[in-house]
TrEMBL record:
Pathway: tRNA modification; tRNA-queuosine biosynthesis. Belongs to the QueG family. The active site is at 129 (proton donor). PANTHER family: EPOXYQUEUOSINE REDUCTASE (PTHR30002:SF4). It catalyses: epoxyqueuosine(34) in tRNA + AH2 = queuosine(34) in tRNA + A + H2O. It comes from Methylobacterium marchantiae. Cob(II)alamin binds at residues 54, 129, 153, 164, 211, 236-237. InterPro entries: 4Fe4S_Fe-S-bd, 4Fe4S_Fe_S_CS, ARM-like, ARM-type_fold, QueG, QueG_DUF1730. The lineage of its organism: Bacteria, Pseudomonadati, Pseudomonadota, Alphaproteobacteria, Hyphomicrobiales. The gene is queG. [4Fe-4S] cluster 1 binds at residues 183, 186, 189, 243. Residues 174-203 form the 4Fe-4S ferredoxin-type domain. [4Fe-4S] cluster 2 binds at residues 193, 209, 236, 239. Pfam families: Fer4_16, QueG_DUF1730. Its cofactor is cob(II)alamin; [4Fe-4S] cluster. This is Epoxyqueuosine reductase.
Length: 376
């Protein structure tokens, strides 16, 4: 049964397949509780709501006897760090510059699950990302790789460019052994993080992570992070891209997650003009659609403010009367960074007086003070 599942998984284009047991990580509950108690999950309340099920596969589904962990590579063709120098363009995390992996991976897992249940007359449940399943520690227990100091799973053969999925099954499958930790004394991922999001090795405070701030966080992004975000408009790959284990990664050959050239480094000017319909069309079928247009524009305007390109001030200006206060607020911030004091004062008189949103009014005051101080 085990061999048949492996063969089928490879046939379906899954790069890694290993098996573990539901109770393989006894420290899971304690570690998850400590992480949540420290508030490191930020506004991701869904992580608290189903913490019991997350910490224990058997609580999520009492019928589970074995956990099949699957990995699919998405190694990018160019180093994502090179995007950060293109200041008037947006940097989108490598996993999001292509078809949404949730759909692709889930389709493959469903096929594999169907095969397993038919072959062994067993029950199965498939999960990719959004279910209360601790995919990284389970994948580590199954020996797919180990959780690096950046907390992401690294495989010796594929580096850390891996997306994960799980099949819980009632079948008793032979379990694999965990992989050893091969981080050694390296700490490159910890040192490169722009926002100091790692309170300690193997621990991430999501509230400081650019991936969380640009994708999960709903409101305005706190001023302390805006400069540090640079041109990252959806997710962040810095700690992954610097990992030396990626030198073994083979560029994902199959077109299963089809990288889209138009998402490799899109011009910020173009993105700032997207209305809701154009945003949906442009990002249909990709993970980027998740944020919705307003949050995405918030990120784009922060990148515009960080671009140092005064020709982009006009794009920010045209967002000053946007229907979304989130967008208006970041347009004000971007203009404060790009326009000179006289222009900001003029715009203040035209727009700030009639502004109804308290957050946007605060952005106007901050922008006026900022240009005042810079001019002085
Ligand atoms: C919530 C979440 C996020 C949050 C929080 C990330 C995090 N590190 O927890 C945010 C939004 C920040 C995020 C960002 C990203 N994510 Co995410 N995310 C998730 C999600 C939904 C849950 C993760 C989770 O349970 N976190 C809770 C914490 C407590 O778990 P943990 O990180 O495993 O924490 C362990 C360690 O702290 C450990 N620990 C504590 N002390 C010690 C000491 C030692 C010695 C050791 C060994 C361990 C250890 O114990 C904890 C429990 O095991 C998973 C999907 C899933 N269902 O699992 C995807 C997932 C982890 N994300 C993924 C990806 C791709 C990303 C990004 C790369 C996307 C991007 N480019 O922007 C970044 C990476 C940022 C980073 N460095 O982690 C992939 C990772 C694949 C892989 N190879 O591991 C996953 C698995 C999705 C998937 N199905 O493929 N993500
Ligand atoms: S994804 Fe970026 S911000 Fe988040 S921990 Fe890694 S380097 Fe830091
Ligand atoms: S960069 Fe170094 S410390 Fe970080 S995960 Fe990779 S090997 Fe481990």
């Amino acid at each position: 049964m085990r061999q048949a599942v492996e063969a089928r998984a490879r046939h379906l284009g899954l790069d890694l397949v290993r098996v573990t047991t539901p109770d393989a990580v006894p420290a899971l509950r304690e570690r998850l509780s400590a992480w949540l108690a420290a508030g490191h999950h930020g506004e991701m309340a869904w992580m608290v709501d189903r913490a019991d099920q997350r910490a224990d596969p058997a609580t999520l589904w009492p019928g589970v006897r074995s956990v099949v962990m699957l990995g699919m590579t998405y190694s990018p063709e160019t180093n994502p760090l090179s995007l950060l120098a293109l200041k008037n363009r947006g940097a989108i995390a490598a996993y999001a510059q292509r078809r949404d992996y949730h759909e692709v991976l889930k389709g493959k897992l469903k096929e594999l699950g169907g095969y397993l249940s038919a072959k062994g007359d067993v029950r199965v449940k498939v999960f990719v990302d959004t279910a209360p399943v601790m995919e990284k520690p389970l994948a580590a227990a199954a020996g797919l790789g180990w959780q690096g100091k950046h907390t992401v799973l690294i495989s010796r053969e594929h580096g850390n460019w891996l997306l994960l999925g799980a099949i819980y099954t009632s079948a008793d499958l032979v379990a694999d052994k965990p992989e050893d930790d091969h981080c050694g004394s390296c700490r490159r991922c910890l040192d490169i993080c722009p926002t100091a999001a790692f309170p300690a090795p193997y621990q991430l405070d999501a509230r400081r992570c650019i991936s969380y701030l640009t994708i999960e966080h709903e409101g305005p992004i706190a001023p302390e992070f805006r400069d540090l975000i640079g041109n990252r408009i959806f997710g962040c790959d810095d700690c992954l891209a610097i990992c030396p284990w990626n030198k073994f990664a083979v560029i994902a050959a199959e077109g299963r997650l089809g990288a889209r050239a138009d998402l490799a480094a899109p011009p910020l000017a173009e993105l700032a003009r997207l209305d809701d319909a154009a945003f949906r069309t442009r990002f249909a079928g990709t993970p980027v659609k998740r944020t919705g247009r307003d949050r995405f524009l918030r990120n784009v305007l922060i990148a515009i403010g960080n671009s140092g390109d005064v020709s982009l001030a006009v794009e920010a200006e045209s967002c000053l009367s946007d229907a979304s206060p989130l967008v208006r607020g970041m347009a004000v911030w971007a203009l404060g960074r790009l326009a000179d004091a006289a222009v900001v004062h003029d715009l203040f008189n035209r727009y700030a007086i009639g502004e109804t949103d308290a957050d946007v009014r605060a952005e106007w005051r901050a922008a006026r003070d900022y240009v005042g101080n810079t001019a002085a």
